[in-house]
Amino acid sequence: MKNNPNYFELANQEGQVASLMKERVEVVVTDLNIFKYYYNKSSLFKQKQYIVYRIFKPTSYKLAFKDKKIRDDFNTGLKLLKSRGAYDKILRKYTE
Q: Is the pTM here over 0.85, yes or no?
């Protein structure tokens, strides 16, 4: 990529979405949930369409805790959120 004058990296993920929607770039590589968050955040992009190509294998993220009690409390709370449908509601709020 270093020999391609059209290639660049932009750390600002909101800027990545804006660049794509304003047709300043043709492709962005980003986390889909982060993309959807910034896409939905701006009413300017609602008319713009995009296509998602899954070119990388999904990454399984993990959490690490130093304290067992905090870990257990977190897991209990997460299970509760999921059982009540609140977890999915939170995800939809930021990605739909």
A: no
